[in-house]
Design goal:
Layout (H helix, E strand, L loop, with lengths): L1 H18 L4 H4 L9 H14 L9 H18 L2 H17 L4 H14 L3 H11 L6 H14 L3 H10 L6 H13 L3 H18 L2 H17 L3 H14 L4 H14 L3 H12 L6 H12 L3 H14 L10 H12 L2 H14 L3 H14 L2 H11 L7 H13 L3 H13 L1 H4 L1 H8 L2
Helix pairs in contact: 3-4, 4-5, 5-6, 6-7, 6-8, 7-8, 8-9, 8-10, 10-11, 11-12, 12-13, 13-14, 14-15, 15-16, 16-17, 18-19, 18-20, 19-20, 20-21, 20-22, 21-22, 22-23
């Protein structure tokens, strides 16, 4: 019996060691709030170019440079006003440029994508498409917008028109296409090819983008150690990269079940980067900790943050889900879901609409929407969790079981709170 007990203890100890991925010594240096030379330089450049822009100015170069610096500030600090100021400068440059107009239009489209104004971005790209010398660059972005709008036929057509397996920009979009199709192995394969190109070119901007994105895909595939390694590689390039830090916080919370460390990382991020969704992750962690007081405080802080009208529709989906799950304000959630379907008719938007009806108790309407627009049209775990709930509410228990099994395999991506709910399906 003693031998059996010892074996059990050793197995438990080994399992705990296997589960531990992060080491605070790896990333503590990046949690210190510091103004790096690049941040200071961005501010100086912005001041320089803005002094050269007078009211009603059409000085195109200054407008373009100013927009670049505002965009850099948004990426570094998350200030939504910086993104809006970049939009204003880019719109004015695009309106008045005679040379390189399509370049400004594409930059404007990228800005609008960040604001989740996908139809406006599509309109900007339609103008840019008229300029043939850089048509390929426009088509790359048209693929991006088509994917965001759920226009998958056009997205596939754009992808075929730009095929080039030696091109970084094509490979990352091919990866995105395979992710949409549910082929995670192919997605990672093409991202790894893109990573090779980025590293060979010694382009830090491409490396940074690739490392953070491939880290997410590794996480979805259960390759948590690889995900962690690439988040650290991102921080080695950009010590202030909030996205990579948030990725490490998610590993600590979802994989290691260490909410205290996750909150410590998030606290450090919020000292240098503004984004309302940090409050939502903190609220989820508080729910996991069975701390309803903190959870309510974080949700209140989120709603206070998104009062800023500059955010527009960027946080619509999050807001609707909170109104349902925490507040029970169904009519407000329904209005937001309907707006999302109008603005962005993807399976995820229809999933939100169906889920609102399910939460309201209109199970039949929820099922009708889900079967027509969601089932077999997306591999996103959250959408499939909602689909399982809708099936269960309609008494279709035979359809729940296979979805439940798949969802439990995606427990890292979904997080402990949602995984607990899935076990009760």
């Amino acid at each position: 019996m003693k031998s059996i007990y010892l074996v059990i203890c050793l197995c438990f100890l080994f399992a705990c060691q296997e589960k531990q991925i992060t080491d605070s010594e790896d990333y503590n240096i990046y949690l210190v709030n510091q103004d790096t030379p690049s941040k200071d330089l961005t501010t100086q450049h912005l001041q320089f170019w803005n002094t050269r822009i007078k009211e009603d100015s059409i000085q195109i170069i200054a407008l373009g440079k100013s927009a670049q610096e505002y965009t850099a500030l948004f990426e570094t600090k998350g200030t939504i006003e910086s993104l809006k100021n970049a939009e204003i400068a880019l719109q004015k440059a695009a309106d008045n440029a005679y040379i390189g107009k399509d370049t400004y239009l594409r930059a404007l489209a990228k800005n609008l994508i960040s604001q989740h104004r996908f139809k406006d971005a599509l309109h900007a790209l339609a103008k840019a498409e008229k300029f043939f010398p850089n048509k390929r660059a426009t088509q790359l972005m048209q693929f991006d917008v088509a994917m965001e709008l759920g226009d998958y036929d056009n997205a596939e057509a754009y992808l075929k028109s730009i095929t080039d397996f030696s091109d970084f920009n094509y490979l990352i979009r091919l990866a995105k296409w395979n992710d949409y199709k549910g082929d995670l192995d192919a997605t990672i394969h093409y991202m790894e090819q893109a990573k090779t190109i980025a590293e060979y070119s010694n382009n830090e901007a491409l490396e940074l983008w690739t490392y953070t994105n491939i880290a997410d895909y590794y996480g979805h595939a259960g390759r948590i150690q690889d995900a962690y390694k690439h988040y650290l590689k991102s921080l080695a390039i950009d010590p202030n990269n909030a996205y990579a830090k948030k990725g490490i916080a998610w590993i600590a919370y979802s994989h290691e079940k260490n909410p205290t460390e996750a909150l410590r990382i998030l606290d450090a991020i919020q000292k240098q980067h503004q984004s309302p969704d940090y409050f939502l992750l903190k609220a989820e962690i508080a729910e996991y900790q069975n701390d309803p007081i903190s959870q309510k405080e974080y949700i209140t802080a989120y709603f206070e943050a998104i009062k800023n009208p500059a955010y527009g529709v960027m946080y619509n989906t999050y807001t609707a889900e909170i109104l349902l799950g925490k507040e029970g304000r169904y009519d407000e959630a329904l209005a937001i879901a309907q707006q999302e379907v109008e603005n962005r008719p993807t399976p995820q938007s229809y999933d939100l609409l169906a889920y609102v009806y399910q939460q309201k108790g209109d199970y039949k309407k929820a099922l009708d929407i889900a079967e027509k627009y969601v089932a077999n049209k997306t591999y996103e775990p959250v959408a499939n969790y909602h689909l399982a709930e809708i099936y269960k509410a309609n008494g279709l228990y035979d359809r729940v079981a296979p979805i439940k099994k798949e969802l439990l395999d995606a427990s890292y991506e979904l997080g402990p709170v949602t995984t607990s709910a899935i076990k009760n399906l």
